[in-house]
């Protein structure tokens, strides 16, 4: 026990990595637990179509956020000026301008989105949701500074507190209005709570409006490829719901959203930890600098993949039982959806740590090439899968797309000396064995779901 505790003590790289990883897991686990608790309450107050409608709102707002992301967080994490006040204030100024731009765009896109999806309620809900993007633009860069130095503890606590406030408001508004407006306003309140808590709760100087040309040039130069990468990340992370919104009813989309939320929890946890953790590790201890660095990276990668993949396989095995335990009969189809979604996400989990090496080295162009390849494959294959084989075909396409993009990722990983073929092979075999067994066990439920929600 003392030996384990000693690993977390001190200011060395591994100690800070372990502490930061622990906080990130606590934060993300706590965040998802809060989301699940509120979800269980809200599904009993509202109706499946409400979650389908909110999924469309999220597709547009997240899409705008990703299509305009200039990589402020990764820039601060990897740049040698990441602690310079002039650099940070310039980054914050860009972030604020972007936030108000996003708000304006949500208002402009409300009518086209309402017409495209045949949902007039989007005319009201999208501009309200956009206000949350403007509020988030004022978040202090002290959040990114804390992650840059692997000091995630206080940020985690403040973000969880903001989420508690937002979710409590969401439940209260749902009881009062019985309407989707509760979900939309709750998101805005949560953004405002996080801003206030982080502004007053994090140490350091407050940001102020400043424009230093040299800093802006560095941010834009690095961020131009992040901008393009995150535009394609929208297709990867939200494209399935954007496409399904045109093919299926709001009720089916709402059930799918529940299934995806539950099944993707491990992968999103891994993504959150990976994004915050691996850039500092790759930046400060590059693999090519010393054999010890490579060994440490392999240990960290193996532990992260093993933990996240294990959780993902648990979701594949327990999906139908979990939905039956937590939800009423209206959401039962989410169970077999969970089995397929969890297995489809496994390839992305196994390979998730490689692309951060490119960002740590300032190779945002290489990061973009991989993001674009994966997003294009996934969009085309998901669209074809849904059109020809229904929802089950679309979900299967999510996993096949990552396999198709794997050679591009390998090339990127080899360029930055981080590819680990033994790691990939071992965890792929584990997925085939345990995941195949889970699919066989739940085959009757999966085929029944696929038949009920077959080709549109």
Low confidence ranges: 1-11
Number of domains: 2
Largest sheet features: none
Radius of gyration: 22 Å
Helix-strand category: mainly alpha
For the termini, the CA-CA separation is 57 Å
Write down how many β-strands occur, each being a DSSP E stretch of 2 or more residues.
0
How many DSSP helices?
18
Helix content: over 70%
Shape: globular
Mean pLDDT: 84
Q: What percentage of amino acids are in beta strands? A: under 5%
Give helix and strand order, one letter per element, not per position: HHHHHHHHHHHHHHHHHH
Description:
The termini are far apart. The chain is 83% helix and 0% strand. It has helices at 2-8, 13-45, 48-67, 72-78, 85-117, 122-136, 142-148, 153-177, 181-201, 213-247, 250-263, 265-284, 291-326, 334-350, 355-360, 364-415, 421-441, 443-452. Helix 3 packs across helix 6. It is globular, with a radius of gyration of 22 Å. By secondary structure, it is mostly helical. It folds into two domains: 12-223, no CATH class; 248-456, no CATH class.
Task: Give the helix/strand layout.
Elements (H helix, E strand, L loop, with lengths): L1 H7 L4 H33 L2 H20 L4 H7 L6 H33 L4 H15 L5 H7 L4 H25 L3 H21 L11 H35 L2 H14 L1 H20 L6 H36 L7 H17 L4 H6 L3 H52 L5 H21 L1 H10 L4
Helix pairs in contact: 2-8, 2-12, 3-5, 3-6, 3-10, 3-11, 4-7, 5-6, 5-10, 6-9, 8-9, 10-16, 11-14, 12-13, 13-14, 13-17, 14-16, 14-17
Keywords, please?
mainly alpha, 456 residues, disordered N terminus
């Amino acid at each position: 026990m003392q030996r384990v505790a000693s690993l977390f003590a001190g200011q060395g790289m591994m100690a800070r990595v372990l502490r930061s990883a622990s906080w990130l897991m606590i934060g993300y686990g706590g965040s998802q637990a809060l989301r699940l608790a509120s979800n269980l309450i809200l599904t009993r107050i509202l109706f499946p179509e409400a979650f389908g409608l909110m999924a469309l709102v999220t597709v547009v707002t997240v899409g705008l956020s990703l299509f305009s992301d200039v990589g402020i967080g990764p820039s601060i994490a990897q740049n040698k000026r990441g602690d310079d006040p002039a650099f940070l204030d310039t980054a914050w100024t860009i972030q604020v301008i972007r936030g108000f731009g996003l708000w304006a765009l949500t208002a402009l896109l409300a009518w086209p989105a309402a017409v495209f999806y045949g949902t007039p309620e989007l005319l009201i809900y999208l501009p309200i949701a956009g206000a949350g993007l403007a509020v988030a633009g004022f978040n202090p860069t002290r959040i990114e500074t804390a992650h840059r130095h692997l000091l995630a503890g206080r940020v985690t606590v403040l973000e969880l507190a903001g989420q508690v406030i937002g979710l409590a408001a969401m439940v209260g508004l749902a009881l009062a209005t019985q309407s989707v407006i509760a979900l939309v306003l709750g998101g805005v309140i949560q953004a405002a709570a996080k801003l206030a808590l982080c502004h007053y709760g994090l140490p350091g100087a407050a940001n102020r409006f400043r424009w230093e040309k040299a800093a802006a040039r560095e941010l834009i130069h690095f961020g131009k490829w992040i901008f393009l990468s995150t535009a394609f990340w929208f297709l990867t992370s939200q494209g399935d719901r954007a496409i399904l919104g045109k093919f299926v009813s709001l009720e089916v989309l709402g059930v799918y959203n529940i299934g995806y939320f539950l099944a993707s929890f491990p992968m999103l946890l891994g993504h959150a930890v990976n994004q915050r953790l691996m850039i500092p590790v790759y930046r400060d201890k590059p693999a090519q600098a010393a054999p010890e660095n490579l060994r440490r990276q392999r240990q960290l990668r193996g532990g992260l993949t093993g933990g996240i993949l294990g959780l993902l396989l648990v979701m594949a095995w327990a999906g139908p039982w979990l939905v039956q335990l937590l939800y009423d009969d209206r959401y039962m189809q989410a169970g077999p959806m969970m089995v397929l979604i969890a297995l489809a996400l496994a390839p992305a989990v196994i390979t998730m740590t490689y692309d951060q090496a490119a960002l740590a080295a300032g190779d945002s162009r290489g990061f973009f090439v991989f993001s674009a390849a994966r997003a294009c494959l996934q969009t085309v294959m998901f669209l074809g899968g849904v059109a020809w084989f229904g929802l089950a075909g679309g979900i299967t396409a999510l996993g096949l797309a990552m396999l198709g993009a794997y050679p591009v990722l390998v090339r990127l990983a080899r360029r930055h000396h981080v590819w680990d073929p033994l790691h990939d092979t071992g965890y792929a075999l584990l997925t085939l064995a345990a995941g195949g067994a889970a699919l066989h066990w739940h085959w009757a439920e999966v085929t029944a779901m696929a038949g009920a929600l077959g080709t549109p």
